[in-house]
Protein: Glycerol-3-phosphate dehydrogenase, mitochondrial
Amino acid sequence: GLKTALLERDDFSSGTSSRSTKLIHGGVRYLQKAVMKLDLEQYRMVKEALEERANLLEIAPHLSAPLPIMLPVYKWWQLPYYWVGIKLYDLVAGSQCLKSSYVLSKSRALELFPMLRKDKLVGAIVYYDGQHNDARMNLAIALTAARYGAATANYAEVLRLLKTREPGSGKERVCGARCRDVLTGQEFDVKAKCVINATGPFTDSVRKMDDQEVPNICQPSAGVHIVMPGYYSPDNMGLLDPATSDGRVIFFLPWEKMTIAGTTDSPTDVTSHPIPMEEDINFILNEVRNYLSVDVEVRRGDVLAAWSGIRPLVTDPNSKDTQSICRNHIVSVSDSGLVTIAGGKWTTYRAMARDTIDAAIQAHNLPAGSSRTIGLPLQGAEDWSPTLYIRLVQDYGLESEVAQHLASTYGDKAFEVAKIAQVTGKRWPIVGKRLVSEFPYIEAEVIYGVKEYARTAVDMISRRTRLAFLNVQAAEEALPRIVDIMGKELNWNEQKKKEELEAARKFLYYEMGYKVKSDQLTDNSEITLVPADVERYKKRFCMFDKDKKGFITILDVQRVLESISVQIDEKTLHDILNEVDLNKNGQVELIEFLQLMSAIQKGHVSGSRLAVLMKTAEENLKQRVVIPVDRSGGGL
Structure:
């Protein structure tokens, strides 16, 4: 019954909400602390989170699903210890337990998770939590709110709070906000009986708009995650490292057919553009190595994307002990009536919203009934079913993989995307042109994304699609086409399209790990090849550098490819060489090629298209060498 408006300074889910571990969970480690320290608050937090986990899986089944998570055990005494803890987790969940946890023998654990380190493995325990597409979930919540009458606006920044004085008492009260349209620069006022501050890591900056003297309550903590190829984990089994080398917890989870690993937990400054650091990436890789088989080489070059999210840990301003961290969310009301919600986690977002609105109703005497959000389906969930994708394949001629992706991303709204999908001109699929070949995202999603309030190329590659979070290089490859499509939808001129490309590439470079990935191969990279390898790679290089110039160009590569009947378009060849052209002079020099091969040997670089192309060409040319008759035994 309340008339509400939502103002988001950037895009929906542009901050921490899209940079999570993608789990919907009660918090196994919090339950452990609750039991060990007899902490009732932590127990209640876990209990509430498990209830909210069940609700979230129910109201957005297309965006979330139960996920089995394996806890490998390497000491006999840990098996009963962990088993009791996990069973207690099931018990606290009660009737909302997703599936009962169970114990695995060593052989069965290795069968389900063959990448697991075998040495000293005793067995494993498997328990269930939920997993979701966090950015799409956030957007679904905003779209659902809009469907029920809320006014929602992204790229609307609050510049300052508006205040008025109460008649009689003369007391100042917050009555709205002065805002700015980030895209146009236009300023406007939004008047309200109650203003709620729900700004995550930026909680204190808004609180200080209300009162400059108020002490900070937010203690920001950076959590870094990395994404690796899907072969690092089974399709439907996660892994939990309950005690890393520094006492933290690391999750290793399948997500969107890739593998996500994280997170770190370190103090940081509040920023809109957090950057993943190399030391955090290496920490995660080292922890992953501890749990994977020695047969699996965990390479730095296999990190396809990396990001940092800022978790807003808070101290309770109403508590006498202002130094203690509050593990749950807190709601506070200032003297001027500003309602602040801080802390919490993704899983309990609905309970956080309920508690916040309840506090607002009480503080401002707002006319409203009780919360109705339990069991309320989110956008796309109403008519979704697990077999919905089959109708997309049958009715529209989409690839099965693309249809499954659309169904799990848009739910029953997937048909709206399919309706605007372009004809491919092929026998199959009939419609649905992919943005990049290895991912199921199609061009129609860009058009639909604009309808979902996407206003920048970054919105599209990171939150409407998740390309930037899955593979930064694939996202960069898709950018020109994405910008072209968005340009047509939003009437961008050439200058605007150029600006969008530059902004998106900068985002990928700094915030999604492209910089730390590219830093693995620079013009200062050390060559650590043994002499025999140097000679071998020099010979391979000379097969392309026939003129002995000391460098190769696109023309050199084209000539060799033509000789083995391989065709690659000039733009793709330019991109392939550009990955290795460290000094950006339009050619690949011998020293750059040796730096590349050295980085590949050390595991710092993987998936180099030039390295694979040159090796393939060398092998093909060797096979085509004519064997003289006198050496072949005469022949026929």
